[in-house]
Amino acid sequence: MSNMPRAEQETVRDIYRPRPASIVRTADVTRIEKLFELELESGEALGHMPGQFVEVSLAGFGEAPISVSSSPTRGPRFELVVRRVGALTGALHRLKPGDRVGIRGPFGTWFPVDSDLRGRDVLFICGGIGLVPVRSAIQYVVDKRSHYGHMFILFGARTPADRLFSDEYEQWCAPGEATFLETVDKRDARWTGAEGVLTTLIPCIRFDPGRTVAVICGPPVMYRFVIVELKQRGMAEDNMFVSLERRMKCGVGKCGHCQMNHIYVCQKGPVFRLSEITDLEEAL
Amino acid sequence: MSVYKLSMEQMRDWISRLIAERTLYGVQQRDERFVFGRVERPEELRLDYDVTILPPKKYVMPPRENLLAYLPQEHYESLWADEPFVPLGVHPYDFVAIRQLDLLFERDNPDEHYLRRRKAAAIVVVDVERVSANVFAGCVGTAVVEEGFDGLLTRVEDGYLLEVRGAKGEWLVSLAESLAPATRADLRQRREVWANNRRRLRKHELKVTPERVGQLLRESYGHPIWEEKARQCYSCGSCNLVCPTCYCFDVRDESDWSLRKGVRYRVWDGCLLEEFAMVAGGHNFRAAKAARYRHRYYRKGLYVPEIIGQLACVGCGRCITACTTGIANPVEVFNRLQEEPHEQHAAC
Amino acid sequence: MGKPRVAIFDFACCEGCQLQIANMDEDLLKLIELVEPVEWREAMSEKSDRYDIAIVEGSITRPEDERRVRDIRRRAETLIALGSCATHGGLNKLRNRFPMEEVRRTVYGESASMPHLDSGRVKAVQEVVSVDLKIYGCPIEIAELSRMIRELVAGRRPLVPNYPVCVECKLRENVCRYEYDEICLGPVTRAGCNARCPSNGMWCFGCRGPVDRPNVNAARDVMERYRKTVEDLVGKLELFWTGEERING
Asked: Which positions in chain A touch B342 (Cβ < 8 Å)?
């Protein structure tokens, strides 16, 4: 093993070495989800597009793939929303503004906000923390509102306590024509909104399948049901985009953990055009 | 073409020089089997082995390889291994496997850790003398290699032939004293060795051409063989771990006693292991044993070939030997897919 | 924050796992820089009722042991089961296959009826109280213990392998014990020992217990291939796996 001088280290591109970033702000999103606003210490923007993910590193704990939740239109800082599920994410939750983390990426594909979505009506369908990566695209659309037609957002949470970003819905809908509908699987005493699974919202909206592009993100079980509904409404597979979760360990198409048949999700995903993966047995 | 002839005595001297000059890895006996290890005396080296338990891949992609050192405050430093070394006595099929890894680690996002180690290696291939119990390199075109190596040894009647290529090859031959070039008769002998090995290294007879395996698999996703064989799968990963072309890895952190410093390292992983595709929340994206069992064959026969343009099974036969329940034989599986196409099953 | 206070307790066992800790040499000094031992019968005379981490060695065999381990559980934030006797019941469980009266008579003879020998069916610690972390093995592995304590103190969740011993055995390039026509329990046993037995010329005895989903049926099916019987296999499994439903697949 040789330890090279720092200067030389910087010139060699080590795909496994994280870049330092510092936490600017944290905010509780739900009981188990926390938002982190981050800034690369180099001062550069992350350079991501909506839907891409980063590997967040915490020395001693390892790395976790986390999707970026903010739009690149909002400046050089970026936001991650982390669900506390294990030791690493638990430790992340204990961090405070000023603390550092390591960042690799951005990695993977993105929602086609500058191509397929542009000039069309957009339909975002999100279950639970599926809203986390999609929020980046929503912000992008909101910030370039004139480039898009009507925006539909359908959001389903397990319970009212699991709703994400509820103080932002109004801002999302303000600048242009927008429809926002939400539901919870299980209501509580104070909930006056809809109760039922996410798919029950689809019949509530009127959209033109010929001029609408759908972006779908949620837990693994959700996709099939949503896709069936949209197809029944006449939407083509070419116009549906999904973001899929897998074990993206290295992020650079080497380690093999995220493979879905022949596809390395960290490279060819996490965002896929549905028609590209309908024949893929391990996809949905 | 630079091919030299080494008498047994010259061979011994040359190996002594190599030991003196570089870290030399070669094959040694362990019980009835063979393993690659550090060679410190020429007499430890066995060039007439049949097959090693682990492939020499372990020198370019070590089972555990430190990637980064981490220091307090999320400071990471790359750790590199670039000290030159010589793996000597690599069988052709294992060398083909290393060449495949070269392609995979170079492409898209070049993996400097692999590439530096690889660059530091001067690899000397040796043509197979003794045929192992399960080798089928002859069926997949890897019994012999004619390019890419730094040195190639072939046992002939009264010594060895050594062919060298490139700068590393020149260095290798510079360590030997006054070598005579190989004669025409020597080269004829070598061609015979090659022809024989192409014929001999076929302990299992693959009934499809390597080029056809991919298509065969495309037609066989729902074939009953996957469920049937996987019933006897321990999910122990032995087939992955002994494979010269498997390169999946896990990345882990380990701190020292200070708890503030440590290393991030990678270890070999295996797609047959139960938690290979499990995410942090606990969802396992390849939970079924049969799906994991099938995935390995698809990696070897279809998915990796789609990337590198060649079958990702080099016919070493190690998985066949390592699998204690006898379900890991690629030849048996591919032949069965050929002989009993899935449609037939679908029809009945 | 002060160093976590650690207490080590033993129940029915040979105390060999504690001995492993005592034998850590220099690493023991490093270890006690991270934690403060407050009770450890084998190595110190102090006792304490205040501790953060309780390390429990041995299996639970008597009603008073159950009361004692419940008390330990109440006091400890983290309870670690140490070694096979604690994690599975270990060799001790072999006796669960016989009537207890007969076991007591065979072992203690005429003294069998004395009250402190009121030893009953053997239980693993988790059969009595909840266990936060298991350190497997008969005996435990010092390297694994060191790593797990470090991770625990650093607030991490220690990695516990859920893959078979074969993984580690292959990496050590051992000749497979099946090539010697031996029944090795490596393919169904939880790794973490770095294949200690096969690396030292013995088959795996299964001391660390099964992986989460061992394919015992596959083992049964292949016995014939190695000129062995299912009875041979079960005989090997019973040594450390008595009471594991998974023996039966």
From this structure: none
The subunits that touch chain B, with at least 3 C-beta pairs less than 8 Å apart, are A, C
Q: Which residues of A touch C (CB under 8 A)?
A: 60-61, 86-87, 90-91
Is the sign of the CA dihedral C225, C227, C230, C236 positive or negative? Answer: negative
Q: How many CB atoms lie within 10 A of CB C113?
A: 11
Q: Is the pTM of this model over 0.90?
A: yes
* Chains interfacing with A (3 or more CB pairs < 8 Å): B, C
* A3-32 burial: b if 16+ Cβ within 10 Å, else e: eeeeeeeeeeebbbbbbbbbbeebeebbee
| Closest C-alpha among A19, A24, A28 to residue A38 | A24
Helix or strand (DSSP H, E) at B228:
helix B225-230
What structural domains does chain C harbor?
A: 5-153 (3.40.50.700), 165-237 (no CATH)
Instruction: Quote the strand ranges of chain A, DSSP E.
Output: 19-28, 33-40, 53-58, 62-67, 78-83, 100-107, 121-127, 151-157, 178-184, 194-195, 212-217, 240-243, 259-260, 263-264, 271-273
Contact residues on chain C for A90, CB-CB shorter than 8 A:
155
The beta-carbon neighbor of C166 closest among B54, B238, B254 is B238
- The first and second tokens of residue B130, run together, are 């003794």
CATH top-level class of A121-277: alpha beta
B9 closest CA partner among B128, B160, B141, B213: B160
Residues of chain B with Cβ-Cβ distance to C163 below 8 Å are: 235-237, 273-275
- CB–CB contact B274 C173 (8 Å): no
Which of A12, A16, A95 best probes binding to B when mutated, by most B CB atoms within 10 angstroms?
A16
The ipTM, to two decimals, is 0.94
Beta pairing partners, A26 = A36
Q: Chain B contact for A90, CB < 8 A? A: no
Cis peptide before C139 (omega within 30 of 0): yes
C146 contacts: CB under 8 Å, gap ≥ 6: C24, C27, C31
Nearest to B237 among C151, C163, C212 (CB): C163
Touching B: A residues 26-65, CB under 8 Å? 57-64
The one-digit pLDDT tens for each residue of chain B (348 residues) are 699 999 999 999 999 999 999 999 999 999 899 999 999 999 999 999 999 999 999 999 999 999 999 999 999 999 999 899 999 999 999 999 999 999 999 999 999 999 999 999 999 999 999 999 999 999 999 999 999 999 999 999 999 999 999 999 999 999 998 899 999 999 999 999 999 999 999 999 999 999 999 999 999 999 999 999 999 999 999 999 999 999 999 999 999 999 999 999 999 999 999 999 999 888 999 999 999 999 999 999 999 999 999 999 999 999 999 999 999 999 999 999 999 998 754 433
Chain C residue with minimum CA distance to B232: C218
d(CA B80, CA A4): 8
Any idea of the CA torsion for B294, B299, B305, B310, to the nearest 10 degrees?
Answer: -90
Architecture of domain A6-107: Beta Barrel (2.40)
From C154, C155, C157, residue closest to A86, measured CB to CB:
C157
Identify the H or E element spanning B119: helix B112-119
- Among residues C178, C176, C166, C190, the alpha carbon closest in space to that of C224 is found at C178
Quote the tokens at residue B203: 């302990």
Q: Which residues of A touch B260 (CB under 8 A)?
A: 60
CB contact under 8 A, B257 and C174: no
Domain ranges in chain A are 6-107, 121-277
Integer Cα distance of C153 and C169 in angstroms:
29
Query: Parallel, antiparallel, or unpaired for β B75-78 and C78-82?
Result: unpaired
Give chain C's contact residues with A (Cβ, < 8 Å).
154-157
